[in-house]
Every structure is written in C-alpha cells, then in structure tokens.
Design brief:
By secondary structure, this protein is α/β, with parallel strands linked by helices. The protein has one domain: TIM Barrel, CATH 3.20.20.370. Helices cover 41% and strands 15% of the residues. The chain has a 5-stranded mixed sheet. Helix 9 packs parallel to helix 11. It is globular and about 55 Å long. It starts with 22 loop residues before the first helix and ends in a 12-residue tail after the last helix. The relative contact order is 0.19.
C-alpha cells in the first residue's frame, strides 16, 4: 500500500494522541483496508439456500513455540490436537461426507507432515496460517513477507497443491499484509470481520479483487474453551451453550440465504465433550437439504463470480 500519500495513516507508535489527528489521518486509517462490494449470490451452487464453510486452525505446538515456550506441558497441549483431535475430526468429517478447510502453520505441518497430506488426501483444503503462528502485526514488512512465502512453499511441497487462501495468525493485518497477500497471488483471505458474508477487500478505496471470507470470535471455539494456567484465561462457557449459539448463527444464515462460517481448533474442539456438540451441530445443519457444504476456496470462487456481474453498491 502507498507510503508517501498525504493521507497515509501515521504509525501506531506515533506520540500524537488520536484526538489531535487531522481528518486525513483518521480517515486514512479507516480507509486503508475496508470492506467493499458484498459478494453474496442470489442462490448458492446447486440452487442451495445457504452455504456452510467449516474451518480448522491446526495450530498444535505452534502456539507455545511462537512465544518461545518449550515446556513439555505446554507442548503437550498442542500435541493433543495432532495426536487426538485431528484424528477425531477427520473421522467425523469422513462419516458426514463434509469438506472443510484446514489452515495450518508451516511449522505445524513440518512437525506433522502425514496430517497435512492426510487433509489433502481426504479432499479437504489446506490453506496458509503463517509460519509458526507468529504475531504478524508486530513484524517488519520484509519479515512478514518472508514467513508467508515460506509457509506457502512448505504447504505446496507437502500437499502437492499450492494454497489459494490465507488466514493470518493474528486475525489482523499489519500495514503491509494486504500488499503481501496480493503480491503472492492469494485468491482469498479469512482474517477480517466487516460482515457476516463474503466481500471484496478495498485498499485505500480501490477494489483489489481479493475475496474476504469473514471470521468472528462468536464463531470460534477458542474464546469459550481456552485455558491458560498462569493467567486469567479460563473456560467460561458450557459446551452446550456454545452449541446453542452456533445453531442460532446457522439458522439465521439459513433464513437470510447467507454463509455460516465456523473456526475450530483440533486441540480445543477435539476433546470428547466438545466434539459431541460439533457432531450435534453437523446433524442439525444436515437436517436442512438445500445447504451447500463448501471449502473456503470453493466459497471464495462462488463469491468472486459476483464481481463479474452487474455493478452494485460497494458494501452494504
């Protein structure tokens, strides 16, 4: 993105308080990465009323490794995702004949190459999720680019297929993320939260052609079930309460003809009492015949088709 434009946002470390920013600065921050044209078709492929896109972030040991934590206990929490959670998830998806997208940090894939290849062999999509689940918003532009490129190359080599999608480890963009994603040829991103439905990403008001498949913490298992022994982070929600929320999210997506997108983690959802609610959720969704189950790449393709249609208003 431009760096010499008068309206370019000031760096986050600027000592100038935000209430003193001129309009060009605060408007520049807002417009740097923005939601553009909504990309929801009148009907999904096959005439389906709604689309369902399941995703799993196979982070495993990279969460502690990112922060330099190497204790066996912390690493074992992540290992559970590969040793137990991913196995159960693959079997559940196989039984339900449901496709999914697995966003996998490259280090996680290198630690568990058979798992990465297994996702692809099962017909699922494998997509980029950083190198070691780094905090990408804190990186210098060249470091972020190098890690994304290395992750892309690693997953391509392991699975035999070049990923077309990315989910940033931080679920956020640095000042250079969007430019890097576009330069490396990604077709879609799934890190931002400006809508319930897919949309085109704008860069400083300009259309990029990049499809955003938005996420949200509501539709993520980690906020409800994460446990950090030496911090205030504790599981605070009963699994069945989470099931009710996710079921309501799907029901409203179905009613409006939109997308139900869900983000899960094998080391989180893979535990017995939590996998039960995922099984029941899939059964609930499966009770609706006119639903299109799609990978994020397939969903992005269907959304991108709207860009070639008649022009419409950007956003909502």
């Amino acid at each position: 993105m431009p760096t010499s434009d008068p309206g370019t946002p000031v760096p986050a470390q600027s000592p100038t308080p935000s209430w003193q920013w001129p309009e060009s600065v605060w408007r520049g921050h807002v417009e740097a990465v923005r939601a553009g044209r909504a990309l929801t078709p009148a009907r999904w492929p096959g005439g389906a009323r709604a689309a369902v896109a399941l995703s799993f972030d196979s982070d495993h040991e990279t969460i502690p490794l990112r922060d330099g934590e190497t204790s066996p206990g912390r690493l074992a929490q992540g290992e559970y995702g590969a040793r137990v959670g991913a196995v159960r998830i693959r079997e559940l998806l196989r039984r339900r004949e449901v496709p999914a997208t697995f966003f996998m940090p490259a280090v996680s894939a290198l630690l568990h190459p058979d798992e990465a290849r297994g996702y692809a062999e099962d017909g699922h999509e494998v997509a980029v999720h950083g190198w070691i689940h780094e905090r990408n918003t804190l990186l210098a532009a060249e470091d972020e680019r190098d890690l994304i490129r290395r992750a892309l190359d690693t997953l391509t080599e392991l699975t035999g297929s070049r990923p077309t999608g990315i989910r940033t480890p931080s679920w956020d963009f640095s000042d250079s993320t969007l430019g890097t994603i576009l330069d490396l040829g990604f077709a879609y991103d799934s890190s931002l939260m400006a809508d319930d439905e897919p949309y085109e990403v704008l860069a400083d008001g300009r259309a990029t052609g990049l499809v955003e498949i938005p996420v949200d913490w509501i539709r993520d298992d980690a906020p409800y079930f994460t446990m950090e022994r030496y911090s205030s982070v504790r599981p605070h929600t009963r699994p069945r309460d989470v099931l009710e929320m996710w079921r309501d999210e799907f029901d409203e997506a179905y009613r409006s003809g939109g997308v139900f997108q869900l983000t899960l983690h094998p080391h989180v959802i893979g535990h017995r009492s939590r996998l039960v609610i995922l099984r029941e959720l899939l059964d609930h969704i499966g009770g609706h015949r006119d639903v299109w189950w799609a990978t994020h790449a397939q969903l992005a393709d269907a959304a991108r088709a709207q860009l070639t249609g008649a022009p419409g208003e950007e956003g909502r």
